[in-house]
Amino acid sequence: MKNFKIVLVLSIILGLSGCANMSQTQQRTVTGGLGGAGAGALIGALAGNAGMGAAIGALAGSSGGYLYGKHKEGEQNAYEQGRRDAYNQQQQPNHQ
User: Fold this and answer.
1) pLDDT digits (tens, 9 = 90+) for 69-84
2) At what angle do helices 50-91 and 24-47 cross, to 10 degrees?
């Protein structure tokens, strides 16, 4: 339980340190890592090793957050490209 409290305090401190200068993908990676560490620590504490659970949870959460962030980045890029293409199509003279 002592390890769980240490991990919890460290997670809160890292969470409060701010994400102001981070991209959305970086923010999602950190958020996933913190959430995974917290959940992993809880499950690990029940299983007898909160530190190992937190480490595994942080790795899994960070990976998931990164992949989700990259997916959302791709969606945003595709949307912006579509808007640019539509704008450019409107600006071209009509050749009929």
Assistant:
1) 999 999 999 999 999 9
2) 160
Q: Retrieve residue 85's tokens.
A: 């293409």
> pTM here?
0.69
DSSP string across 13-63: HHHHT--TTS-HHHHHHHHHHHHHHHHHHHHHHHHT-HHHHHHHHHHHHHH
The H or E element that residue 76 is part of is helix 50-91
Confidence at residue 18, expressed as pLDDT on a 0 to 100 scale: 66
CA distances 12 to 89, 91, 92, Å, are 50, 51, 54
User: Measured at the alpha carbon of residue 50, what is the angle toward residues 11 and 10, in degrees to the nearest 5?
Assistant: 15
For residues 33 and 58, the answer to whether their CB atoms sit within 8 Å is yes
**Buried-exposed string 27-56: b where 16+ CB fall within 10 A, e elsewhere:** ebbbbbbbbbbbbbbbebbeeeebbebbbb
